[in-house]
Amino acid sequence: MATKITYTQQGDYLLPDLKLPEQPKVEIGIWGRRHLKYIEHYRPILYTNLLTSCKLTAYLADIDELAEDMFFRLVKQFAEKEGVSEQLKAEDQMQWVRKMNSIRNRVTEIVNNEIIYS
Asked: Which branch of life, at top level (predicted)?
């Protein structure tokens, strides 16, 4: 099956009308979008290679899933290690919120350094 290439006139030149095939529609979460911004700005060759090979969406979905799994696993481990429990939540909600926010911020930094910005 031969593909017919069409051209557009630009001044004195005929340029091919190139179009990438449709990529699958996958919902990319916050981690995948952060990584996309990172590779667009700091790793343009990787970004271009993934985009032109139609692997960008699948790659970002994998990164998003990996980062989200790591995030929730580490939050749970830190909370257990630091004694942040449902009992503390029932007894002193503000203390529980402070501790959980601290844990989430630390874990976000770890995920960013280990997966998103590497």
From this structure: Bacteria
